[in-house]
Design goal:
The chain is an alpha+beta fold. It is built from 18 helices and 16 strands. It is 41% helix and 16% strand.
């Protein structure tokens, strides 16, 4: 393994220089590569030299996005598939397996040596097969989904979902248990596939921004920011300084609201409803402040290509300060309540453990990654304005259990409060929006931003007329859902809601 890592010590940029570069891809390089280079990239991913950021396709081409931690470099490698097939990444690097299966479902490209050839997003209910492919093909006739077998004495299966109690989105969970102990969990997702990538093709930029911001409604700021930054990178548009700071303010408000909701919901699944009640009140305060300051509780469509659509007034600044004051008064007692309730700690400590090595292998970001020792935060590296001008911490723990995921959220609430306070203090004056440049040629852009769940990636190609030729939004949940299966192993069935809520993966963001 060390020899293999040394082979890749020259860096991802040098390897991609062996391919044909795309000068109109910004801000990171993209190259058209050969099968030999593709295999070298697979080897580097399998050996841990790089982290998989994304894997998606279009007719005749498959794209691989990787991150090199040592240099902070993101790169995209594109492999032509003239025969509609490409060498499997997932065979050597498991985090790619579900992405490959979705490429087959959506585009029709097949892997030559896949370890798992089952469909993923396509449940046999679509009006046509391979909706992102070149031709209209009638729907596929699919056999019942073959769940993986588990062998042993006294094992039984417990099917849960896709319809759940409550208003959460649909997903199927197939438990194999020995008594109450979970031996295996296997997920089946894709029930809320909306065809977003196909809908984006040919859309005007402004309308596409609205659609991407709705990929996962609770992360509308993160998706809106990622799409806007990708569009600005593609067109080489420079936006006003004030717009950068207002975007960061919106992002921290979104993080604050969701973390409060998650902390309360985790405690509620451990039968401690008091925390849910208090955290719900705080979350509601954030949403009302967002509406007061920017006109929308969830801040939907407030970030647009070129800047922001709503400014912060003096009354809004006062509302922000009142929010911070209230949080600093009401949140610390809730931390003490969580930490000093023995029955609650009994449910969260050591429950839902995920091996840090698995977290690193999957490039799992956000709360789940940082609770398991992976310090990645897209606000820091590769980074984007104005976080390079703000002093903040990204809390990291190593216990990697439900309790650690609660504590990371607690610390991130504290950091978001500090960031909001500093942004309001340092907010520059000036315009809030610039006109998007119209280069009059095909352009490509890419962005990676830190949402409350983790890193959101958007890759974008624009036609010469400025409409969307292809857009791929990737939710952090793609690399988190598989780890939920690992987290519940050797726990009891009754702890699954607790583990699941501590992850809080997005169904909608994953299913697209």
């Amino acid at each position: 393994m060390n020899n293999a890592k040394n082979q890749h010590a020259s860096g991802i940029k040098n390897i991609l220089q062996l391919g044909q570069s795309f000068p109109n891809h910004h801000p990171w390089p993209r190259a058209l590569i050969t099968s030999e280079i593709w295999h070298e990239l697979i080897q580097g991913l399998a050996n841990g030299a790089w982290t998989l950021l994304g894997l998606w396709g279009e007719p005749g081409v498959v794209h691989l996005a990787v991150y090199e931690e040592a240099s902070g470099t993101l790169s995209v490698a594109s492999l032509p598939c003239p025969d509609g097939r490409f060498p499997s990444v997932g065979r050597r690097h498991p985090p790619a397996q579900r992405l490959e299966r979705s490429i087959t479902d959506l585009v029709g490209l097949q892997t030559t040596d896949a370890s798992d050839g089952r469909p993923w997003l396509d449940h046999g209910r679509w009006p046509l097969a391979y909706p992102l492919g070149t031709a209209s093909i009638p729907p596929r006739s699919l056999a019942p989904y073959p769940f993986l077998p588990a062998e042993g004495e006294s094992l039984h299966q417990i099917p849960v979902g896709p319809v759940h109690a409550g208003i959460i989105e649909p997903g199927h969970f197939r438990f194999t248990a020995n008594g109450e102990a979970v031996v295996r969990l296997e997920e089946r997702l894709g029930y809320v596939h909306k065809g977003i990538e196909a809908l984006l093709n040919g859309m005007p930029l402004e309308r596409a921004a609205r659609l991407v911001s709705r990929v996962s409604g609770d992360s509308t700021v993160a998706y809106g920011l990622a799409f806007a930054r990708a569009a600005e990178a593609a067109t080489e548009t420079v936006i006003p300084e004030r717009a950068h700071w207002l975007r960061a303010l919106m992002a921290e408000l979104e993080r604050l609201a969701n973390h409060c909701g998650d902390i309360g919901a985790i405690c509620n699944d451990a039968a401690f409803a008091l925390m849910l009640a208090h955290c719900s009140v705080l979350r509601e305060r954030v949403l009302r402040t967002s509406a007061t300051c920017f006109g929308h509780r969830l801040l939907m469509d407030c970030i647009v290509p070129g800047g922001v659509s709503a400014d912060l007034s003096p009354d809004g600044i006062q509302a922000m300060r009142e929010l911070i004051t209230e949080f600093r008064h009401r949140f610390p007692p809730l931390i003490d309540l969580y930490d000093n309730t023995a029955s609650l700690q009994n449910r969260t400590v050591s429950t839902g453990f995920v091996r840090p090595a698995l977290i690193k292998q999957f490039g799992c970001g956000g709360v789940i990654g940082r609770a398991g020792g992976r310090a990645f935060d897209a606000r820091r590296q590769p980074g984007y304005p104005p976080y390079d001008q703000l002093d903040f911490e990204s809390p990291v723990l190593t216990d990697s259990d439900v309790n650690a995921r609660v504590w990371v959220r607690i610390r991130e609430v504290e950091q978001s409060l500090t960031l909001i306070e500093r942004i309001v203090q340092k907010l520059p004056t000036g315009p809030i929006k610039a006109e998007i440049q119209r280069p009059g040629e095909i352009r490509e852009g890419m962005a990676l931003v830190e949402g409350f769940r983790g890193d959101v990636l958007v890759w974008l190609r624009l036609n010469a007329d400025g409409t969307v030729a292809r857009c791929h939004p990737r939710d952090p949940s793609w690399f988190q859902w598989p780890l939920l299966e690992a987290a519940i192993e050797n726990n009891i069935v009754a702890d699954f809601p607790l583990c699941n809520k501590s992850f809080n993966c997005s169904y909608s963001g994953h299913d697209l």
